[in-house]
Amino acid sequence: MSFRAPASDHQFLLEQILNFDQISATEKFAEADADVMAAILSEAGKMCDEVLAPLQRNGDLHPAHLENGVLRTSPGFGEGYKAIATGGWIGMSAAPEFGGMGLPMALTTAVNEMMAGACLALQLAPLMSQGQIEALEHHASDALKQLYLPKLISGEWAGTMNLTEPQAGSDVGALSSRAEPNGDGTYAVSGQKIYISWGDNDFTENVCHLVLARLPDGVAGTKGISLFLVPKYLPDENGNPGKANDLSVVSLEHKMGLHGSPTCVMQYDGATGWLVGKEHGGMAAMFTMMNNARLGVGGQGIGAAEGAYQHALAYALERKQGRTPVADGSGTIVDHADVRRMLMEMKADVFAARAIMLACASAIDMGSATGEAEWKSRAAFLTPISKAFGTETGIRVAEQGVQVHGGMGFIEETGAAQFYRDVRVTAIYEGTNGIQAMDLVGRKMMDGGEMANRLIDEIEEQAERARPTHPNMAEAVWQACETLRETTDWLVEAEMQDRFAGAVPYLMAFARVLGGHYHLAAALADRGGAREKLARFYIKRMLPQHAGYLTHAREGAAGAFALTVEELAS
Ligand SMILES: Cc1cc2nc3c(=O)[nH]c(=O)nc-3n(C[C@H](O)[C@H](O)[C@H](O)COP(=O)(O)OP(=O)(O)OC[C@H]3O[C@@H](n4cnc5c(N)ncnc54)[C@H](O)[C@@H]3O)c2cc1C
Q1: Active-site residue (options: 137, 430, 460, 532)
Q2: Does residue 247 contact residue 232 with C-beta atoms inside 8 Å?
Q3: Buried b / exposed e along 244-272 (16+ C-beta atoms within 10 A)
Q4: Buried b (16+ CB within 10 A) or exposed e, 72-99
Q5: What tens digit of pLDDT does each residue of 28-57 get?
């Protein structure tokens, strides 16, 4: 089945719902006008459809593997990567002085999502590079920037991020990798990192690892961690890949999905590295990369959801089974009410998650273009929601995609299961969704819930404006806001343990309400059109889920701990 990149949906959202003009009106993004946006989405979409989507099955059927210690990628992935690199899609938002295009993150995020929908496993490679580029732009020395950024932006070299160790997953502060000063400004980095995505490949000249490690005087915990740039090949005096560094890929993980993306166990044995940012300031530097990647991973979920939806729809339009009550219907399962329900839910959720993700990316752009704290807080607040809801949507929609296929969904040949298996990890990596939700109700509510309440105000204002034309939908969204506000007020007063127990349901409720908000905006923009009908479906049937989530969120921790560990095991 062929993939059709959803460029027109992105364009609609950016132009008509999220006020892309506001971004173009800033000095920083003055060149990114509506025409540029349309051209970029259309060009990227073409590459996704024609070059990347045909590779998706290769990754699953012919996984990346080690051949006598040399990493071999899935057939066609090298060519696919080159198409991404030469198209300039890696450095879309990177600084022009190093060869980037300086375009808004809103556009990069849209393109990333479309690439993920076409071929998730391959798209993870440029996503890692983009995060590294941003981290180096913000924290590296001028010398490192001059040497590495042009190569990473052009895609000649690729980037990775190395946080995780066997005993240090969510608890990054428990890491034990070490770095010793060599006395010449470089450091000797040693330790083992696990689960490193695209830890190597056979299509770039060099692979640059950003590695978290502890200096000899680094204190325990996150405060004692520093960040190092450790290339596979040490650049020679001309900046070309020279001598091999003291690092290796020990093995590849055997995974449930995403087989086209090599997930590496990396060994560093006194490998030469360069400090990025300040000594012991590694977490701050790494957070730049992680925030970028969090939004990107949310987009991976949505891309996979889009792919799974298209796949399921195509099957539903062909598969004949039973008589359907729709007189002028196609005679295929698409005319069964329950199949329609699934397809509508899938489509409505993809729209909601995509709108939230692009709203987050737009806030990042406005924050970087204006320097205004309000935009920055909005971006920070929306990042965990975009990541967790985007990836939950990916999983839910891909799971429904399997269901639409019936038995054929469970049979690998159709490819429906691949979407489900591939996307599952997105809720785990880049900070599990539980950690995202704790970030939302913890750090992101240190302002006493101000940002949350400002967003709720905004949603209510639009609902008020929609009352004359869409009274029922407007009322439903407005009421949902009130419940969300009550729970927000409850949460900011609650003990941290109680907040954490309700964090995931609260995040999901917030996303549901934001989804209602953007669907309502779409209804206002497309009166009598398909988007208005989809909005009605979402607001009547899916938005009400917020109430269940919020009830759960307000229950506190005691109930979650009601059973003793022994009782859990009994
Ligand atoms: C395919 C794949 C690719 C990956 N790519 C990379 C990569 O490129 N670079 C990299 O550095 N890492 C990578 N990772 C690692 C990934 O980021 C971690 O798996 C993830 O952060 C979770 O850590 P963990 O696996 O140790 O789980 P744990 O931290 O052991 O978590 C287990 C469970 O406990 C929960 N939990 C843990 N701590 C808390 C807490 N304080 N409060 C509440 N709940 C908690 C978690 O939410 C989870 O449900 C990858 C992982 C996979 C599977």
Answers
A1: 430
A2: yes
A3: ebbbbbeebeebebbbbbbbbbbbbebbb
A4: bbbebbbebbebbbebbbbbbbbbeebb
A5: 999 999 999 999 999 999 999 999 999 999
Q: Are strands 206-214 and 157-162 parallel, antiparallel or unpaired?
A: parallel
The pair of structure tokens assigned to 357 is: 């993700």
Which residues, judged by CB distance below 6 Å to any ligand atom, belong to the binding site of ligand 1? Answer: 161-164, 169-170, 195-197, 255, 258, 263, 425, 428-429, 431-432, 434-435
Which pTM was predicted? 0.98
- Residue 134 pLDDT greater than 70, yes or no: yes
Which residues have a Cβ under 8 Å from the Cβ of 416 and sit 6 or more positions away?
308, 311, 312, 315, 398, 401, 402, 404, 405, 408, 409
DSSP 425: G
* Ligand 1 atom at minimal distance to the Cα of residue 193: 11
Cβ–Cβ < 8 Å for 298, 120: no
**Cα–Cα nearest to 426, from 294, 514, 306, 251:** 294
**Minimum-distance ligand 1 atom for the alpha carbon of 433:** 47
Phi, psi of 495 (to 5 degrees): -65, 150
| pLDDT score for 284 | 86
Q: Give the H/E segment covering residue 121.
A: helix 120-139
**CA distance linking residue 321 with residue 493, whole number of Å:** 54
* Count of CA atoms in the C-beta half-sphere (13 A) of 298: 30
Q: How far apart are CA 506 and CA 498, in angstroms?
A: 12
Q: Does 544 score more than 90 pLDDT?
A: yes
- Compute, in angstroms, the gap from residue 293 CA to the centroid of ligand 1: 14
Give yes or no for residue 525 having a pLDDT over 90: yes
What would the mean pLDDT of 134-155 be, rounded to a whole number? 97
In sequence order, what are the beta bridge partners of 211? Answer: 162, 228
430 in catalytic set: yes
Q: What are the tens digits of pLDDT across the range 465-517?
A: 999 999 999 999 999 999 999 999 999 999 999 999 999 999 999 999 999 99
Within 10 Å of residue 237's Cβ, how many Cβ atoms?
Answer: 6
